[in-house]
Structures are given as structure tokens and as C-alpha cells.
Amino acid sequence: MAEEKTKKTDYEKALEAYSQAMKVFSKKDYEKAEELLKQFLEKFPKEKELIDRVHLYVKLCENSRTEKPVRLKSFDDYYQYSVIKINLGEYEEALKLLSKAGELDPKSGKIDYMMANTYCLMGNEEDCLGRLVEAIEKDPYFKVLAQNEEDFETIRENDGFKEIMGRE
């Protein structure tokens, strides 16, 4: 039981460190963000779910100094980079990256879910709801996520959202 509590505490510390680095990154202080991200990699090497993202952000920080374009190859590259663009408020670019990721893995519901999320942030309720339906058709788990997603707060009382969630 104590071991579980320690793991949770370590994970919470990792999330806090990651969040702090992302705040600095979003302010475009890439040098400081890179420093924080590298510290994260040293302190939390066991946090597998965050490590890939941190490596991508480190590359972005490094590229900010050299002005080299980011080379995206895999589904995960496009997906993770789209999340970065969403966090920076660059929604159109994020949608392009998500579309490319969707071409690489058309069965992935997480692309439709992230597109729904992005459309919602843009205020485009119709496309948001359409993509949300597609995500849920591919994986019903996205219905559970959508019910708790902060970014969908603006459409919670929308009749289409209520219908999708099964609570008219």
C-alpha cells in the first residue's frame, strides 16, 4: 500500500514538473523550457506515458535555436505535434497534423476525438459533434472521456452533445 502511495506521489510530482515545463514552453521561453524538460527526463525516467512527449518538446526547443523544421514521420509524431499546436492555440495547423496522422492510422479514434476537441476550442460545434460521433463509433471509451473533458464544457448543454452522451 505504501509503495502504491509512493508511485502516486512520484507520478503527481512528474505531472507537476511536466506542467511547469509546458507553461514555460507556451511562453516561448524555449531555452528555459528545454532545461526543465531535460531535468524531467533525469528525474522521472520511469514515466513512460510522458517521456515520448518530453522528447518531442526537447527537439522543438532545440529546433527553435536552429530554425530547422521538425521532421515528422510516424503517427505518434504527427499526433504529439498536433497536441503541441493545440496547446499553442494554432488550431488550423493542429487539424492539418491530425488529418495526416489520420491518414497513417485511419482506424484510430483518438484522431477523431482530438479533432472534435480542436473544433470545440474553435467554436465549431457542428464539426466538433460530427468528429465526436466518429471517435465514439471507433472506440466507445471516448464517450466516457468526453463526459469529463474540460474543452467540451462550452457544448455540454447542446442538444446534439446531450444526445451523443445519451442524456436528453
Report on this model:
The chain is mainly α and 168 residues long. The chain has helices at residues 2-26, 30-43, 48-66, 75-87, 91-104, 109-122, 125-138, 141-148, 159-165. Helix 1 (2-26) packs antiparallel against helix 2 (30-43) and helix 2 packs antiparallel against helix 3 (48-66). The longest helix has 25 residues, at 2-26.
What labels would you give this structure?
mainly alpha; 76% helix
The N- to C-terminal Cα distance equals 42 Å
- Secondary-structure-based class equals mainly alpha
Number of spatially distinct domains: 2
Mean pLDDT score, rounded? 87
Q: What can be said about this structure in brief?
A:
This protein has helices spanning 2-26, 30-43, 48-66, 75-87, 91-104, 109-122, 125-138, 141-148, 159-165. By secondary structure, it is mainly alpha-helical.
Which helices and strands appear, and what pairs or packs with what?
Elements (H helix, E strand, L loop, with lengths): L1 H25 L3 H14 L4 H19 L8 H13 L3 H14 L4 H14 L2 H14 L2 H8 L10 H7 L3
Helix pairs in contact: 1-2, 2-3, 4-5, 5-6, 6-7
